[in-house]
Each structure stands twice: as structure tokens, then as C-alpha cells.
User: Fold this.
Amino acid sequence: MVRDYPQISFVYDPVTGRRISVSPRALGKDGIVEIEAWKLPRMIKLGKKLGRRIDENGKPIEYKFLPAKGVSPKGAKGPEVVISYWLMGRKEDGTMCPFLSTSAENIRTEDGTLKCLIYEDRPLPCRAYPVHAIYTWQTNGSKMASLDQRCDWVVEQATSGLRRASQPFPPDLIKGLDYGSFARLQSWIGDRFNRKETTLWRHATEVFGKGEKPPDAIEGWVNVGWD
Assistant:
């Protein structure tokens, strides 16, 4: 999965409630994958089950989780419930999922790529990838999906004649993508929280690419609303 900065250009001032413009990099880079809160204990257990592993440089591999998103009633000074966590990358720059086989372990799939060591129990975002979003057209109620254009497979499809890969398309157009996992993730959040009565918070990872930390870098929780 591709790791990048969140597409956020403003936050809400905790005192005045007004929008404040910030750099899209202010919150730091997202983790490798966003884990639903209820899935976190299972992910921690899976890491322990794999035991002590060493990376290509002989250093122990750690499974680091940081808060990602939280929700509170409007007007609160911080989130009252954490709804998701980031699984952070194992390399210094934040890349490379720690659950992916290292080149030193050399555990590979049939097509030769390094294998996910928890493939059968991977979280919903991993199952859905590269599905990026699912929409419902208001005109006819039909479902449409869009794909993450930073995914190598998507780029290959788009450049090989399947132009629909670069824009919203009917979810069943491309077989083999578990878009249902993304829909379940969306509905879990949407069904649980009333967006008119609550607000969404994000927790800054404080992880930046070399020389990319902006002067308005944020620490801790910040109100980003549901916009």
C-alpha cells in the first residue's frame, strides 16, 4: 500500500471553532494501513505470534501502532473514542509493512513477490486495496468505485487500455477486488456516528520525509471535522 501525507489543508481552532489553513503535510505521513479499533488487539496478537524477526540490516522488526482517528460530541476538547489506529512502516522513512516478508526471509508468493505473513487475517483496508472510495450516484442509486492511482497495478491497467481504472467505475467491472471490504469499513463508521452531532479528530504521526517537515507541523490530536 502507498504511504503518503493526508489530503488535509485546514483544521478547526479548538477555542474559536474557526477553520485554520495548514500545510497538507502538517499532520505527518499516514501509516502503512489504517486499522479499525476493534481489530487492534488481533493485530498485536498476530505480531507476537510471528515471534522475533530480523530485517535486512539485522535489526529487530517492531510492530508500531499510533492513534489515527477519534470521534467526540461537538464542542469537546478532544476525542472521546478512538476509532482507528495506524500501523506504521518498519523502515526509518515509514515505508514497508512490518507484516511483509523481508528479502532476507525471502518468503514469496507464486508470482515471486514478497508474501504478506498475515494474508488470511489482513485488515479490511488491505483486503479492499486498491479501492480508494465507493460512491452512490444520487441520480439512480448505483454504486461506483474509484481506485488509488498511486497503485502500480492501477497505473498498469490505466495505461494498457482500461481507461476506466483512472475514474469511478461500477465495482464489478474488475473482478478480484474486494470492494465489499471497503464498503464494510465505510458503513461501520457511518452507522455508528451521527455526523451532525459529532466531530472527527486526527492524530498527527509526526513522521516526515527528509527535509519535508513544515513550519506549521502539528502534534497530538486535531479537530478536522467530517468535511
